[in-house]
Task: inverse folding
């Protein structure tokens, strides 16, 4: 079966750094996405990885290791507005997205 | 540009009632999707469309039907609602273009079936 695992909830302090992990087992791999979803709102795109390595985009970075079936999202200089759920999704061999349940990130002052 | 819009935003149904959720996009995207999101679970694909006049089943299609008569619209129908269909429904669209197929989401419809 297909499976995406990520922690249910994490807590971090404003100004700090947090790493959200995602492991996956899917039938085929055409790329991995991270989306951000604020409570009661729609998911919005953050990043995409298809090759191994780190992709940096401002305060956010995403890493992929295809051999390990592993990715992480790194958020630096945390701000209160970063309080949200972070969704990991893998595009499988049918070009459909398989989604993790999301990690709820709580930022404390 | 409005992006992806959904109608209605909230709805309460009684078991056995029917309804249609409307999704519209103004980005000229070929691909459109209907997902449901339940607590503790990832987004699950109900149906999708790769172009006007085409539809296909996703992971959880039972109890739902869809139509894509116009490129910009994707309708999701519940013929006989059941309490298990209480959920938040998201529509999304994408261009399918390289280098990656980013999906753009509507604001969601919160459906309660009593």
Result:
């Amino acid at each position: 079966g297909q499976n995406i695992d990520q922690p249910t909830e994490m807590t971090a302090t404003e100004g700090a750094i947090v790493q959200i992990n995602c492991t996956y087992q899917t039938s085929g791999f055409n790329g991995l996405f991270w989306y951000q979803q604020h409570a009661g709102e729609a998911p919005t795109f953050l990043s995409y990885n298809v090759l191994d390595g780190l992709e940096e985009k401002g305060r956010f970075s995403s890493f992929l290791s295809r051999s390990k079936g592993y990715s992480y999202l790194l958020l630096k200089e945390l701000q209160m507005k970063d309080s949200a759920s972070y969704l990991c999704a893998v595009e499988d061999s049918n070009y459909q997205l398989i989604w993790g349940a999301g990690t709820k990130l709580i930022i404390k002052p | 540009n409005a992006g992806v819009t959904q109608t209605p935003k909230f709805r309460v149904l009684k078991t056995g009632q029917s309804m249609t959720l409307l999704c519209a996009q103004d980005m000229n995207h070929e691909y459109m999707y209907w997902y449901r999101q339940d607590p503790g679970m990832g987004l699950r694909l109900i149906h999708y469309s790769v172009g006007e006049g085409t539809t296909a089943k996703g992971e959880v299609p039972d109890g739902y039907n869809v139509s894509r008569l116009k490129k910009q619209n994707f309708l999701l129908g519940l013929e006989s609602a059941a309490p298990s269909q209480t959920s938040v429904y998201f529509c999304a669209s994408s261009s399918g273009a390289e280098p990656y197929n980013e999906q753009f989401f509507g604001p969601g419809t919160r459906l309660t079936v009593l």
Observations:
- The longest strand of chain A covers residues 18-25.
- The two ends of chain A are 40 Å apart (CA to CA).
- Chain A has a mean pLDDT of 96.
